[in-house]
Amino acid sequence: MKIVADKAIPYARRFFSTLGEVVPLDSKDITPESVRDADCLVIRSVTRVDEHLLNGSRVKCVASNSSGTDHVDTGYLDTRAVPLFNAKGCNANSVAEYVLSCLFVLSEQFGIGLEGKTAGIIGCGHVGARLRSLLHVTGMETQVYDPFIRDENGRFVFRDLDSVLSSDIITLHVPLTTAGEYPSAHMVDRQFLGRLKNDVIFVNTARGGVVNERDLVDFARDNGACRLVLDVWDNEPDINDELFALAALATPHIAGYSAQARLNATRRVYEQVCGYFDVDATAAVVILADEDAELNLSGFDGVADAVRTAVLASYDVRSDCAALKGLAETEPHKRGAMFNSLRTEYPSRREFPALRVALSDNQGVIRETLSALGFSIKPPPG
Question: What residues are labeled active site?
Answer without folding.
Answer: 207, 236, 253
